[in-house]
Amino acid sequence: MTRHLRLEAVENFRDFGDYATASGRRMKAKRFYRSASHGRATDADLVAIEALGLGLIVDLRRPAERGRDPARRPEGFAGAILVNDHEESADDDPWWSFVKGSDLSEATFRQYLMDYYRGAPFVPRHQDLFSRYFRALVDTDGAVLIHCAAGKDRTGVLAALTHYLAGVHEDDILGDFLLTNNPERMEKRAPVLRQLIEEATGRTPSDAALHTVMGVEAAYLVEAFRAIEAEHGSTDAYLERALGVDAALRAALEARLLA
């Protein structure tokens, strides 16, 4: 199965369904998509996106991000769009604030991302959107798209939780997460990101540091699940207590997720 959808100006767009599960069934194919921001989507991209038959879009970006880079949607899109206006910090862009004050080293970027994943499952804004997403899934007839800015971190956590609920094996959950490290995407994105960092800091990051910023490592997602289990005892308990995914909702989600 070819998971990546090559669009002109929307990065990291791919199908995260069609995995085998512990029940012996499979996640549905061509029903679950993830991507980066749609702010620069071309008209051709919008045509391709419209053809997917989306019934639900979850935009995980903060309000300030959405304001700076408004998403383009297919004309007349009639599906549900989930966003929220919660801000946990007066800083409207904590990532770029970090970059400006960092040494731009590979190790510093990696530590930032480890810390990020450790805290991401507990951010109130994330929990609100994650819980609303799972409730909306059972009422959505069309395909589903989740996205953030780069389509790798916030999106990666939510996709992994979706896989967990579906019963996808841990190896496949991690393997899907690592598909963000697509060499074609990395090569195309690196010069753009290097220029943005140079403009923001007056300094030039190394190739290794850029690769760390753009990519993901299995350890990040492992850390997110470790933190969940440390806080709640298990991922199942987190889903129920923090996100409201109780037995009844899980049963409804199984019908929605599995072929």
Q: Helicity, in percent?
A: 40-55%
| Fold-level CATH name | Protein-Tyrosine Phosphatase, Chain A
CATH class: Alpha Beta
Mean pLDDT: 95
Description of the molecule:
With 259 residues, the chain is α/β, with parallel strands linked by helices. The protein has helices spanning 43-50, 63-68, 94-101, 106-119, 124-137, 154-166, 170-177, 183-201, 207-214, 218-232, 235-241, 247-257; strands spanning 14-15, 32-35, 54-59, 80-82, 143-147. It has a single domain (14-257), classed as Alpha-Beta Complex (Protein-Tyrosine Phosphatase, Chain A). It is globular and about 55 Å long. The chain starts with 13 loop residues before the first strand and ends with a helix. The model has no long low-confidence stretch (mean pLDDT 95).
Short description:
Helix content is 51%, strand content 8%. It contains 12 helices and 5 strands.
Keywords for this entry:
single chain, 259 residues, Protein-Tyrosine Phosphatase, Chain A
Fold blueprint:
Layout: E1 14-15, E2 32-35, H1 43-50, E3 54-59, H2 63-68, E4 80-82, H3 94-101, H4 106-119, H5 124-137, E5 143-147, H6 154-166, H7 170-177, H8 183-201, H9 207-214, H10 218-232, H11 235-241, H12 247-257
Helix pairs in contact: 4-9, 4-10, 6-7, 8-9, 10-11
